[in-house]
Amino acid sequence: MLGYTIRRLLALVPVFFVVSGVVFLVVHLVPGDPVDHLIRTGSSPDQRAEIIARYGLDRSLIEQYISWLGRVISGDLGTAIVMRRPVATLIWDNLGYSLALGGWALAFSALAGVAAGAIAASFRERWIDHGLMGVSLLGSTVPTFWLGLLMIMLFAVQLGWVPVSGARHWTSLILPVLTVGLGGMALVARVTRIAMIETAREDFVMLLHAKGVPRWTIQIRHVLRHALIPVVTILSLRIGLIIGGSVTVEYVFARPGLGSLLIRALSQRDYPLVQGCLLFLAMAVMLGTLLGDLLQAAMDPRQRDEATR
Amino acid sequence: MLLSVEDLKIGFGLLEPLVGVDLGVDAGEILGLVGESGSGKSMTAMSIMGMLPLMGGRIKQGRIVFDGLDLTTINEGSYRKLRGGRIALITQNPMTSLDPVVRVGRQIDQASQLHLGLDRKEAKSRTIDLMDRMRIPSPQHAYDLFPHQLSGGLRQRIVIAMALAGDPDLLIADEPTTALDVTVQAQIIQLLVELVRDRGLGLILITHDMGVIAQTCDRVAVMYCGRVVEYGPVARLFDDPRHPYTRALISCIPQLGMAPGTLTGIPGMVPSSQNLPKGCRFHPRCDSVLDNCRLREPPMKTEDGRSVACFLHEGGQR
Ligand SMILES: Nc1ncnc2c1ncn2[C@@H]1O[C@H](COP(=O)(O)OP(=O)(O)OP(=O)(O)O)[C@@H](O)[C@H]1O
Ligand SMILES: [Mg+2]
Hints:
The complex is a heterodimer of chains A (309) and B (318). In chain A, 78% of the residues lie in helices and 0% in strands. Chain A has one domain (87-308): MetI-like fold, CATH 1.10.3720. Chain A is an all-alpha fold and 309 residues long. Chain A is flat, with a radius of gyration of 24 Å. The longest helix of chain A has 36 residues, at 87-122. In chain A, helix 6 packs across helix 8 (174-200) and helix 10 (215-244) runs antiparallel to helix 13 (271-299). Chain A starts with a helix and ends with a helix. With 318 residues, chain B is of the alpha/beta class. Helix content of chain B is 32%, strand content 22%. Chain B has eleven helices and twelve strands. Chain B has an eight-stranded mixed β-sheet, with helices on both faces. Chain B has a four-stranded antiparallel β-sheet with strand order 2-1-4-5, with helices on one face. Classes of the chains: A mainly alpha (309), B alpha/beta (318). The complex binds adenosine-5'-triphosphate and magnesium ion (MG). Magnesium ion binds at residues 41-42, 174 of chain B.
């Protein structure tokens, strides 16, 4: 397992270089002089010269990339042009909000989704199955902003149980988490259900019945355990999406977060900030996938051996 | 009789995969169950295991009497205690019949913990003992392996050990060697025969292989399209097969010294269960059809220890 972890980590190194290369090139790929993307309009020639020297814009692309990467690795992501603060600080300030929303939404999708899927699979083709699957289909097709607004109307405005928006109190997290999490929950529920139904058809499950193992032990300890393997993959692929892709929800609920930060940076053409956000989100996706693979290997000895061979 | 099945009929919706199954097996005895694919051998096994409801089927008629108890009348809770405890099943494909993410030793433990009430340590030592008796090399080490790390033959030995862990009286082996190499097949069959002879287990051995039946079984039930068409002691059935289907099956056994090209198959195909012929189900493929065969199903007739369902053997019509 340790060897597997190390190998998987090493495999990420080339990916990191490619991703960071693309992020670095953003400034050079958009039309216009890169200096103009890195400096406020109306700066003096002196300031331009300083930026050119700082970013080494007069040197070759490779040299520029290496020195940029060196700064990135030491934690210096540059300074945001519009907000005039270090990019690293801006990301750090927003990260907490994104992680809270993403983490809870992921946990909610996982727990509620697995529970719903397992119940549906165990009572297959009965009303409870149809009910749960109907709701989850709804949950995955309703647009996020509409769902968010609907929930604000009901729980915040009508019932007054939670704040309408903001991020000051933990209760303000409930509606955003539900809004982001419901889509994930629906997906997880469907994957869990299908995986359990497929697993239940396998020979070894028949043989567990033949061994006299109680039905619920088979469902939970064997069938569900197998179904969790694809669920882990799905969830790990969603980590990046949830952390960076919750822009709509952040807007609807007026919450800060990485998604909104990136959108703002893009609309203000704040390229250092765009680069920082993109790089950070790419890392989150990579780490999410890594985590998913490691969990899978921990759960499935066949995969461990496959990778070792 | 340890187990006797009497006039069993099962239904899956409108389909009736079994319509007349009569057979029996005693302790220390091997009953062979033969027949072409789709004849209902596995369904018979599932019926005895009480696992039809899991597959969406049910028993419509008949009795399954095990050790004096009619299994068609007991509830699922009591059935579950029998399964793996007193009646155990071995299935065809050792590649798929073990849980791929659980160590093989633990899978054997599970049965003795459930049925003999052993704790984990006792179960482990029983498992290692069983694995040793199944001639699995270095059982201490093999205990902690996962199924994919073992060969097919070893996996089937694990499945057999798992079946024995609950200390059953009756073992049902549904084509236990079909998925294995020929040399391994012989070893596994040998192992099963020893178990029956040494421990007095009853064994129902399901197979396509008439050769295996002739060599190992005490009694045979020949199945065709959901019915047992002939049933009796193995020597007499092979010496003097009464049902034309049994005769045909026996003539399909390759013999040493046969001239090339003389091995016969049975002409025609097994009819599908949706589309059964009227009268005797075998008559379209039979080489000695009577008028009666096209009209009515022949009833099972029992005469000095052997039974056959064929008009050729009814009241001197021969
Ligand atoms: N789940 C099911 N539902 C309904 N009918 C089934 C089901 N499984 C099998 N059958 C039918 O039951 C009949 C008997 O099948 P069974 O599997 O017992 O045959 P078998 O003798 O074991 O054949 P094989 O040698 O191929 O294993 C077949 O006609 C098959 O179509
Ligand atoms: Mg079968």
